[in-house]
């Protein structure tokens, strides 16, 4: 992750509104709205809470770290590695990659449901959407098509993703909110349980599990930190302003979109994978334009496909770059003729296929969707815990480093408050994610805990095992990964070595 804005004085600079909209496009997804609609009015509390303790801290901390290492590639590998050493840097980039890999079946499940609802018979569409075989085949077909397209190069994917974000996310979100306003203002029956109030019953921990998934709704904002150096001056003021505007728009879309679903669908009938389409169908029937239902389904499907096509090769590119520096065996460094990391994509596809096959052991498509979503949340939150704490550590390890953007320059109080808030929020969500949700039948609690606990242990242990097995021959001579700050510093003389001396490379291995 680099930016050339420092070296190109004539490079185009991003305005506050432009960056704010980019933040919205990067974060907002409609597929998770049904998960929060079951909470009624209290869903707004969860959205606001997660935005304050996670979304904004993530964006600000990532901005400081991205600007600090603007001329050094690696992303979270660089940020965490500078703070905790190479092992944990590799763990961070590995988690970012594997999290996105596990995410594919969940988002493609939503894509399969969208395809099912292209028909004109709602009851038949619902039966097809709940059919495990149909969902499994559709998920695998779409994913492998996207993979083979990625192997042919991604030059045109950027344009597809932009169109997909507008057609499949922004426009449907706006329509859903408008439909909800028209529905309630013209006397439509309010199906939302208004007795819950804004503040939820926080004593019922099992009811908070679905809410913890909101943190994943906001995940990915760290990717926008790379643009901090491309913001119009003064970046120290314009970047935070764009972040808060983008966060505000994001929260409004999520809150009003969730309310719109709650108005048209009773909480007891909400289904995590189907309710977005069911909600649209309900509004379209109310407005006597049912003919538009397949159009909405196609638009949502296109949004999913465009997003997946963009992400299939994205995170894998990051771990591929790091792997070439000696962190992955040569097998994973193989590319095709146009330089696409083919073997990593095939391994990634194998993992997605295995996860998709869990359809046959889970009691329903919905339970499969939920348990994989929770595992995704857990893995991503581990990376965020490393990032937030690492930002604080670097304030002390790299006191004199240049920070073009900083969360408080005169003292470390600001970074402790912002990064500390993000760390505590992520830790809270991590703990809550282990509790089985009461609203969804996930089958045996034993299976639930086994998948989440064993999944986390295996995934976290894997990069450490790979790191311990690395060999000098793994490093590609052409790979260019800038050294960490503690590798650039001269080793202090033994006569003056103290416990406060800069760490040597050996100490960080």
Automatic annotation (TrEMBL):
One of its GO terms (cellular component) is plasma membrane. Keywords: Cell membrane, Membrane, Transmembrane, Transmembrane helix, Transport. This is Amino acid permease. The lineage of its organism: Bacteria, Pseudomonadati, Bacteroidota, Bacteroidia, Bacteroidales. InterPro entries: AA/rel_permease1 (IPR002293), APC_superfamily (IPR050367), Glu/GABA_antiporter_put (IPR022520). It is found in: Cell membrane. It is a multi-pass membrane protein. PANTHER family: AMINO ACID TRANSPORTER-RELATED, GLUTAMATE_GAMMA-AMINOBUTYRATE ANTIPORTER-RELATED. Residues 492-509 have a biased composition (Low complexity). Residues 486-509 are annotated as: Disordered. The chain crosses the membrane at residues 12-33, 45-67, 88-113, 133-151, 163-185, 205-221, 242-266, 286-314, 344-365, 371-394, 415-435, 447-469. GO terms for molecular function: transmembrane transporter activity. The keyword Ribosomal protein does not apply. It comes from the Bacteria.
